[in-house]
Amino acid sequence: METLLLNENQLDVAAELIIKGEVVGIPTETVYGLGADASDENAVRKIFSAKGRPADNPLIVHLADFSEAVRYTSYIPELAHKLAEKFCPGALTMVLPKNDRIPLVTSGGLDTVGIRVPSHPVMHRIIELSGKPIAAPSANISGYPSPTSASHVMRDMNGRISAVVDGGQSEYGVESTVISFEDESTVRILRPGCVTEKMLMTVCGNVIVDKAVLSGLEKNEKASSPGMKYRHYSPKADIIMVESTLESFTDYVGRHYGDNVYSLIFDGDSDNFPYRHMTYGANSIQQAHQIFRKLRELDDLNAVRVYVRSPEPVGVGLAVYNRLIRAAGFEVVRL
Ligand code: AMP
Ligand code: MG
Q1: What's the rounded mean pLDDT across residues 148-157?
Q2: Pocket mutation for ligand 1, best pick of 191, 194, 231 (most atoms within 8 Å of C-beta)
Q3: Which of 72, 176, 190, 227 makes an SS bond possible with 93, Cβ 3.0 to 4.6 Å?
Q4: What is the pLDDT of residues 24-36, one digit of tens each?
Q5: Ligand 1: which residue has its CA nearest to atom 9?
Q6: pTM to 2 decimals?
């Protein structure tokens, strides 16, 4: 199958493919997604097979407006409506009890479904034109860093899906914040994103950050979100997170240096850093925007090992930290 590269004036073609049960790479404000009709089991199976995604890892369903969530869920708490008023459209996914319009294939066998209303005009328009709820996981091969440009999607998916719409670089660069509801005023962050704990606190009485956001699951421990248990976001290179000052980081890299060893450091660190490196931004918003692209670029350079300066795990930095510790297989050096 030849994968078509579409531009933003060809959204009718993309919508037509979705209606026919095909899979299309679609830009969103977070990362690129692999979109298909969430209510069509066969279409959804094509997503899983294109990505090589484990069947129990659920897909998020994207809608044009939160008012449509009643069509696909059996219950919506008042708090979800309040959150939707503030954060929809945007990078927030709410896990809600699903109804029969969402097949179990889409929800990875769960009786819940993650609902998001994306703000990206291309994704929004394709949902409207197709009239379908669109299941769209990140458009990477399972386990590899998420794609933040159409060329990343082409690199992973050429020949595996019908088309990719080029909508430029993803604005945020990390996937949506995923939350579930604990009680009438409490939510739990299952995956951190650009809708931060602090932002959620402006609407919720209490926000719990799931333990698995900052660390690996223990053996046999049940994941509250299936995606937590899989290897994720990993380039071919071995990633090692280093939590330290620039001084100790530099010293550590010097002692572990060699051929094809790279460092990923902050903008502004470069001046006094004598080793092979790339930078990934000066603050957590820039780091979120760049992290997956830089991990992919390090593979292009044939990096075998990469020492990464750890971001502070607060605000958007929590999302960057969460992706990096998974990319590192939880290998963190604290100096
Ligand atoms: P991706 O589609 O690659 O952005 O990953 C979506 C992630 O959202 C999954 O790996 C899950 O961890 C999480 N998720 C989606 N739906 C649910 C759900 N119904 N319950 C819990 N977590 C979910
Ligand atoms: Mg993903």
Answers
A1: 98
A2: 191
A3: 176
A4: 999 999 999 999 9
A5: 227
A6: 0.96
